[in-house]
Amino acid sequence: MTTRTNTTAPIGRSLLTAALATALAIGAGPMAAAAPGDDGWTGAGGLALSGADNAKVDAYIDRAKEAEQSISVDVRTAAIASHAELVGFDKRLKSPDSLKRKVATSLKEHPEKNLDTVLKGLTDAVRYTLQWPDGTYTDGVATASSLLSAWGNNSTKWSNTWGRARGYKGLNTGWRAARSGQLFEVQFHTPASKHAQEVTHLLYEEQRLPSTGPARKKELQAQQDAEFAAVPVPPGAGRLSPPAPLTVPATG
Q1: Are strands 154-160 and 171-176 parallel, antiparallel or unpaired?
Q2: What's the whole-model pTM score?
Q3: In whole angstroms, what is the distance from residue 86 CA to residue 75 CA?
Q4: Average pLDDT in the 203-208 region?
Q5: CA 150, 156, 160, 161: dihedral to nearest 10 degrees?
Q6: pLDDT at residue 35 above 50?
Q7: What is the pLDDT of residues 145-203, one digit of tens each?
Q8: Is 28 left (phi over 0), alpha (psi -120 to 50) or beta?
């Protein structure tokens, strides 16, 4: 049996105190105004939402926008404490069109599911990317994830693909926010893995469309594999594991 190494770093009292002070100083920016609803939604590949379903998704988006404010305080503070670069913070909220495309795709691929079930399973309506150089990546991830856990955010997903022979390389994590219960995503990257993700994003989006045929999907996957094959693996990244739950005061 293979023993899994827990590389989560212990959090010192001084780090928690400093992080808490940073969180209180950061606060949160103003909430973006909600877009007006409409009668329905249509997208590429024959995707569509009825007027009633579209209204439900709009309501979900409004709740995610409200929850994002306190989540961002935790994530920004964890980034500062772990010396991470917070990449693409202005895109922390998934666009309404992208979210609706994801919902409509899920409903089309899984007709046994209803809209409420799909919405409850969304993990990236609120999402962040933290990035470190290869040499500090593993310690940075351990510190940032431990802080998020310490503030009561429950780890719901830990997808470490650094050890893969082919395909996506990185660490994608899911969390349930301590205050709102909103699910959110934090991706942990190096500059090289983030670049590969950006280069392959459109390929991945096309691959996900229900209208994309098997042959084209295989071709798109091969292109993505080639891009990620050139990404170096930071020392110890493949052994990173979820943080052990801690009980300390949240950031505010």
Answers
A1: antiparallel
A2: 0.80
A3: 9
A4: 88
A5: -160
A6: no
A7: 999 999 999 999 999 999 998 999 999 999 999 999 999 999 999 999 999 999 998 99
A8: beta
Give CA–CA dist 99/105, Å, rounded: 10
Q: How far apart are CA 113 and CA 229, in angstroms?
A: 36
Domains of the chain (ranges plus CATH)?
A: 70-189+230-239 (3.30.460.10)
Query: Which residues fall within 8 angstroms of residue 224, CB to CB, at 6 or more apart?
Result: 167, 168, 200, 203, 204, 207
State the chain's mean pLDDT as an integer.
88
Label the pairing between strands 127-131 and 183-189: parallel
Question: Residue 44 has what pLDDT?
Answer: 85
Residue type, 71: I
- pLDDT given for residue 50 in this prediction: 95
